[in-house]
Amino acid sequence: MASKSLIEQAKQACAYAAVDNELKSDAKVVGIGSGTTVVYVVERISQRTDLKDTIYIPTGFQSKQLILQYGLRVGNIDEISSIDITFDGADEIEPSLNCIKGGGACLFQEKLIASMSKRFILVADDRKDSEILGSRWKQGVPIEVSPYAYLKVINDLIALGCQNPLLRMGAPAKAGPAVTDNGFFIIDADFGIIKDVVKLEAQIKALVGVLDVGLFPGMAEKAYLGMSDGTTKTLLRAI
Ligand SMILES: O=C[C@H](O)[C@H](O)[C@H](O)COP(=O)(O)O
């Protein structure tokens, strides 16, 4: 069997460390994010024998399939009012743990689950480690929009200072735009270096037609970063 690339090893290391250190035996409800790094979170959880009664709340189709694939209990967001802890990936993380998410077109359900969680823990390899948002993730801020409103939102984003907002396309897997788990489109909006994350998030969220934006300010408590030398670095949000 081919050995894992260094990046995959880094993802696995940070995910395993996050689960080992943060997931306590008394956790009743656990949120599971989306993307390639949380696969290792679920893999590690499935190796535990002390979490028999725990239910797992997915953040989208991939996340739900992952929970089922590992034989864990899927919970329904309609049946719970709070989540003990959520693990999720990120596309860029700055030292204060503000982050960009949505590179894989999942962001609204992720933000919803994060907002219901007592603790929100990020797992990522060190390509996501950044001094300031917008300096490493160059694809732009992902924004989930109603298909009916996408052109109006693109024009609004230009008025907000985005040079070239792009409607994300589904090629080669799908002709036409990428469609999210909620039946919405994604616009990638490059705002360059983002100095005021809170303000930009509020401005974009206020646009009619926007479901949510992949800026997550002030939500994560801790980030586990898998480094290329095999170690894991932990970042803690200053409160
Ligand atoms: O849309 C996708 C999600 O926000 C992911 O959590 C994010 O893109 C990070 O994914 P990955 O762990 O694959 O880098």
TrEMBL record:
Give the EC number(s) listed in the UniProt record: 5.3.1.6
Which GO molecular function, any one, fits this protein according to its record? ribose-5-phosphate isomerase activity
Assigned keywords, A-Z: Isomerase
Q: What Pfam families would the database entry show?
A: Rib_5-P_isom_A (PF06026)
Looking at the keywords, is ATP-binding present? no
One GO cellular component assignment for this chain's record is:
cytoplasm
Kindly state which reaction or reactions the protein catalyses. Answer: aldehydo-D-ribose 5-phosphate = D-ribulose 5-phosphate
Q: In which pathway does it act?
A: Carbohydrate degradation; pentose phosphate pathway; D-ribose 5-phosphate from D-ribulose 5-phosphate (non-oxidative stage): step 1/1
Q: Which domain of life is it from?
A: Eukaryota
Which InterPro entries does the UniProt entry name for this protein? NagB/RpiA_transferase-like, Ribose5P_isomerase_type_A
GO biological process terms, alphabetically, are: D-ribose metabolic process; pentose-phosphate shunt, non-oxidative branch; pyridoxine biosynthetic process
Q: Which CDD domains match?
A: RPI_A (cd01398)
Q: Which family does it belong to?
A: Belongs to the ribose 5-phosphate isomerase family.
Q: What is this protein called?
A: Ribose-5-phosphate isomerase
User: What is the species of this protein?
Assistant: Tortispora caseinolytica NRRL Y-17796
